[in-house]
Design goal:
Pfam families: MDMPI_N (PF11716). The protein has 10 helices and 7 strands. By secondary structure, it is an alpha+beta fold. The strands form 2 sheets. The protein has a 5-stranded mixed sheet with strand order 5-4-3-6-7.
C-alpha cells in the first residue's frame, strides 16, 4: 500500500500547524520547568531540534548539523531499547538551551525539511535508526508525532491542555509504523528476550484509514493481507493509542476509557506481540 495523496497533503499541512501551536506554548514557558523525569522545557525543545535536524539530513543525504561525535554510527546501531541512550548523547553535546534560539532553529529546520520533502516526494526511502527503511512521508509522520507527544508533555507541565488531532495521530500508525514494517525495520526492534515460537496476527483498526494486519513469525513482524479472523484485533482512537504507545497514558486507562479495545481469537497474545512491536517510553 503506497502513501495516498490525502495522507501526503495531511502530513505536510499538519507539521507546520502543530509546530506553530508548540512555539506559542513555549513562548513564555519557564525554560527550567520540569517536563518529564529527566527533561526540562529547554531540553525538550533541544531534543525536537535534533529530531528535525536529523530529518533534514536524512532527506538531504548528508550528515546532521549537530555537534555529536560519530552520530551516524550511533544512529545505525540504535535500537528501540537504546533510543534513550542516543537521545542523552545528543543532548549532552548539543548544549543550546535558550528557548528563543531553539524555537528559531526548529522553525527553520522544519521549513527546510518540508521543502526537501516536497522535492523528494512521499515514497522516496531513507535509512532511519537501526537500518530501518522509511518513506519520506513516514519520516514526516514521525516528526509530527514527536511534536505532538512532547507538546503534550510541555502542556501538562504548564497545566494547560494539548489536543492531538486523531487524524494526525493516525498518520504515525499508517505512514511510520506500518510503512516501516512493510519496507523493513532492520535491527531497530532487536531484543535479548526469547522468541515466540508460533505465529501471532494482529489487526489494527481506526476510523481514518483501512485495517492493517501485522503478523509476527519467529520474532519478525511483517505486513500481511487483512485477516478476517486475527489472533488479536485492536480498535482505537489514534490520539490515545499513540499516547499509550509512548507511555503517556496507561494501557488500563486507555481500555477503561474505551479509547482502545482489544478482541480476537487469542487476545491474550497481544502482550507477547508488543514485546517485539514496541515503542520507547
Amino acid at each position: 500500500m503506497s502513501v495516498t495523496p490525502h495522507q501526503w497533503q495531511r502530513v505536510r499541512t499538519s507539521v507546520p500547524a502543530v509546530l506553530g501551536r508548540l512555539l506559542d506554548l513555549v513562548e513564555d514557558a519557564p525554560p527550567e520547568r520540569a517536563v518529564t523525569a529527566h527533561w526540562t522545557v529547554a531540553d525538550t525543545m533541544a531534543h525536537l531540534c535534533a529530531v528535525a535536524a536529523m530529518g533534514v539530513a536524512l532527506v538531504r543525504g548528508a550528515p546532521p548539523d549537530l555537534p555529536v561525535p560519530a552520530l551516524l554510527e550511533l544512529r545505525g546501531r540504535t535500537t528501540i531499547d537504546t533510543i534513550s541512550v542516543m537521545n542523552a548523547e545528543v543532548l549532552r553535546h548539543y548544549r543550546e538551551r535558550r528557548v528563543p534560539v531553539l524555537a528559531t532553529r526548529l522553525r527553520a529546520d522544519v521549513e527546510e525539511f518540508l521543502r526537501l520533502a516536497d522535492e523528494a516526494g512521499p515514497e522516496r526511502e531513507v535509512s532511519w535508526l537501526g537500518g530501518a527503511r522509511l518513506p519520506v512521508a513516514g519520516l514526516l509522520a514521525h516528526l509530527l508525532n514527536e511534536l505532538n507527544i512532547h507538546s503534550w508533555d510541555v502542556a501538562r507541565a504548564l497545566r494547560r491542555r494539548w489536543v492531538i488531532d486523531p487524524a494526525d495521530a493516525a498518520l504515525f500508525v499508517d505512514l511510520f509504523m506500518v510503512q516501516m514494517t512493510r519496507r523493513g525495520y532492520g535491527n531497530l526492534l532487536d531484543h535479548d528476550g526469547p522468541v515466540h515460537p508460533g505465529r501471532i496476527s494482529v489487526t489494527f483498526r481506526h476510523r481514518y484509514g483501512p485495517e492493517v494486519t501485522l503478523a509476527m513469525v519467529a520474532g519478525r513482524v511483517t505486513v500481511e493481507p487483512p485477516d478476517p479472523r486475527p489472533d488479536v484485533r485492536i480498535s482505537f482512537d489514534p490520539a490515545t493509542f499513540t499516547l499509550m504507545l509512548f507511555g503517556r497514558v496507561h494501557r488500563l486507562r486507555a481500555v477503561l476509557s474505551r479509547k482502545v479495545s482489544v478482541s480476537g481469537r487469542r487476545p491474550w497474545l497481544l502482550p507477547v506481540f508488543l514485546r517485539t512491536m514496541r515503542s520507547p517510553s
